[in-house]
Structures are given as structure tokens and as C-alpha cells.
Amino acid sequence: MNRRRFLTAVGAGAAGLVAGCSAEPTDDGSTETGSGSTDTPDTGGTATEADGTATAEGTVTGTASGGTPLLRVGTYPSFVDAPSSSPGPWLKERFEAEFDAELQWFAPESSMDYFLQRRQQGVSIDTDLFLGLAPENLVKADRAVGEGESMFTSVDTADLSNADAVVGDYRFDPQDRAIPVGASYISLVYNQNALDERGAAAPETFDDLASAPYENGLLVPNPQNSETGLEFMFWTIDQFGEDGYLDYWSDLMNNGTRVLQDWGTAYDAYSNDEAPMVVSFSTDQVYADRYDQDMARHQVGFLNNSGYAYLEGAAPFTGTDQMGLATEFIDFVLQPAVQAEIAQRNVALPAVDNAELPSDYYDLVYEPEEIVSFGYDELMGNVEPWLSDWSRQIATQ
Length: 397
Description:
15 strands, globular, 397 residues, 2 domains, alpha/beta
């Protein structure tokens, strides 16, 4: 999960914080961090250290010092861009301390779309694996490269010592190319104070959101630009079916729901009291607690007792000459202690069921009674028509 920011008042000023379980790579490949980006994905990128140099196109060149094996890992920017809190710098230090290897991060602004563009252009990817791959990213890549081809290669899970502890509901690739390494849940975040002023209780169902007490009350990231919004759309498809989800969205829009550019824009508007509810993540209270925020403004709600699983995987690129080291890296990332640290730094949940987190962390992280998530087979061939239908009927309202 790459991404969560909310605005917090510090004294008389306001500070923008990057919070969140991932950098929110969007469906078009741009990455939502901070206020988000929905521009055409650029081909540039940001390389982090490890004796690498970013070329004008954003690729990373260079070799590890002294002939030490070099593992080049692509990811989203917020996984690496805050040295004091992002998981990337910590993970690099720990991995290099345990293995005779150097880890080099590469985080292009357009995230996974950067690598897909290079593949389609016939240009070398120059990266060994990608960390932060969402199910819809995998489906998009497979559809783009064509039948019988893949940007990613399968991992032998027999070589992953903690593979059996991966939460079953988080597995999304039947070919084991993408191994789950983190999760969160799409949920509502709402301001109980603002709802109290309306005389409205906390919403409990999808139908509640389209009813009079919540008129003009909901902010939603645009599914065309945001994985958060896209997965909220998936959640409504699960609830109402392919034949009913557009009618539900029409009901939302008729009730004054606002669809904003991306997750960052929607959360900013929520933080500025433009509406009492926003589609966000069930880990919201972790950051609110760290910065001593009013928890009444950071209530988490699931609809119909369910939540849509936001999943991230690590997947080796086809053609890597470091497959063994890439597998060792994924094995390392899945270790319980590493999973616990990544989850806390990324404001997320571990992908394994044997990671031990502080008890007060779970006091702030909410999980639904029912996990909703479309797997690879359900998404393949459906994402584009679902989104196209939504765009024609809803985006124009």
C-alpha cells in the first residue's frame, strides 16, 4: 500500500503527512502520494542509493561495490522516500546485514506503469523484481503483454520458509508470480462530531450512504485515477452485482456524493471539513494516534460488515538474472519480524498470520467480519469494461 496522507494541525500551522499502507499507484500507473497525480505517467523515476545512477529515462545503472551481488527492486515512491519512517531504507539495511548482497531501490513516479511502458517499447527493464504489485496491476500487465507472455515469473513457494503463514484471503495470483507482502482494507473514515451535528448515526450499510441523513456527505476518489477508488468500485460490484452497481452509484451521486481526482485530493477535502465521510483505509487511526489527533474525526466504518482487501505483492520480473537472490529477498520479507516492522512503518497489516505486532497497534487497526476481494480470474477481462461502463454513466454526472 503505498500511500496515505492526512493533514494535521501543528500549533497554528498545518503539515501534510505521508501516511499509509502504500503509495497508491493508480490504475493508469501514476502514483498517489500527497495530493496525488493523475497526469499522463511520465517515464522518469527516482532511484535511491546503492551505487546506482538514474538515467534520463529513469532506469538505474551501476553495480554493487566489490562485486557483491546486486538486487534491483522497483517499488512506489512512498515506500522509500521518508528515511525515518518508510519501510524501504530499513529493509535495505536489514537485508544487507543478513545477506552478502546489496539492495538497490528504484521508485519511478509512475510506479508499475513505468515498467509496463518499457516492456511495451521493447526496452530492458533493468530491475529484478517489483514490490507493491496490486491484483489489478498484474491483470493490466498480463493483458498488455498478450496471451502466453508475462512480465513476471513464478516463485517456487517451497523456497519460502514462511509461505504457509500467508493469509489465504490475501493470495491473488494462481501462478505464484506475485507473493502477498502486505495488506489493508478499503473502508469509510468518518467524522463522528460532524455526523452528530447532523443527527446521523455512523453509517452501517451501502444503502445508508445513499439516504437523506448522509446527503452531500461522502467523498470518493475517482476510480479512473485511483486504486482506492477503483477498489471501492469493486466493492460495490461485489455488493450489487454487475447489473446493479451503476444504479447504486447513480443513487450515491443523486445524494450529493462527490467524486474527486484521487485519494489525496479526497482526503485533503475531508481533512478540511468539506464532508463528514471519505473512502479511505481501515488503518487511519494509526497515524491519527501518532500525531495525537481527535479520534472522533478518524472513525473507521465497514459497510455491510465487509471491507475490500487492498493487497500488495512482490513479483520477480521475467528475465532477471538474480532469480535466486530475488527469491531470498521475498523469503526475507515474509519473515514474521520483518512483516511486523514493514506493517508498522507502512501503516498497514502484515500478509502473514504469525507476525507479532504491539497489542496497541491492533487497538487502532480494524478488520472487517467479511473480507471482499476479487482474485485474478475475476478481474481478468472485467476491469476495463467495468470501469468503462462506470466512466460513461457516472463520471459524466
